[in-house]
Design goal:
With about 200 residues, the protein is α/β, with parallel strands linked by helices. The chain is about 35% helix and about 20% strand. It is built from seven helices and eleven strands. It has a seven-stranded mixed beta sheet with strand order 5-2-1-6-7-11-10, sandwiched between helices. Strands 3-4 form a two-stranded antiparallel ribbon. It has a two-stranded parallel ribbon with strand order 8-9. Strand 10 and strand 11 form a beta hairpin. Helix 6 packs across helix 7. The chain is globular and about 40 Å long. The two termini are about 20 Å apart.
Length: about 200
């Protein structure tokens, strides 16, 4: 596919919400955002604590377009939880996050998380009988799951990644389930990912 035609080629009605809590890992949020955006998926950052600017674990301020307290995010096709500390624990402990995660799970909608954030699904028992990956040391929080030492794992309607280095694989997998394998691969080629192998 011609590089210059990619922008007009992608046209998706899919929507992904990325939940940002103070102390999130910015690379884990922004790289999948970028990949999904290039795939013409509508992506919005959602503030968990209500502040329009959420500061990452490395002090990077990121603007959001929605507050979780103002929306149930019911029109989304996927919910994505970046990791980072203490961001992942804020996600785990939030009642509003609990409600939206359980609603997506009950509807069979896509749920994705990376690094420490898969524990949000694990401690709720949502990963029972599924395969999942996470940052080393958080396997104990994947209750009932079969932990994997892989970069990215898709199991049922869950997608999990192991850490910041999983950004490309995770973003690609998220795009693939929403807009197709060919589109996801074309986006990574456009980004020059592993082009010199």
């Amino acid at each position: 596919m011609n590089y210059l035609k990619l922008e007009t080629y992608f046209n998706s009605s899919m929507k992904v919400y990325i939940l940002l809590a103070p102390g999130f890992e910015e690379a884990e949020a922004i790289l999948p955002y970028d990949i999904l955006h290039r795939a013409r998926v509508e992506v919005q950052f959602v503030s968990v604590n209500g502040d329009p600017i959420v500061t990452s674990s490395h002090g990077v301020p990121v603007g959001t377009t929605l507050s979780l307290s103002d929306s149930n995010l019911s029109d989304g096709d996927m919910l994505f939880l970046p990791g980072g500390m203490p961001g992942a624990t804020h996600l785990r402990d939030s009642e509003a996050v609990d409600r939206v995660v359980r609603a997506y799970d009950a509807a069979g909608k896509w749920l994705a998380a990376v690094c420490a954030a898969p524990m949000v699904f694990g401690v709720k028992g949502l990963l029972r009988g599924r395969k999942a990956t996470c940052y080393p040391g958080f396997e104990k929080d994947l209750l009932g799951a079969e932990p994997q030492t892989l970069t990215c794992v898709r199991s049922g309607h869950f997608i999990t990644g192991c850490g910041a280095g999983a950004g490309f694989a995770l973003g690609r997998e998220m795009a693939a389930v929403l807009v197709g394998e060919d589109t996801a691969d074309a986006v990574l080629r456009q980004m020059m990912y592993q082009v010199y192998e």
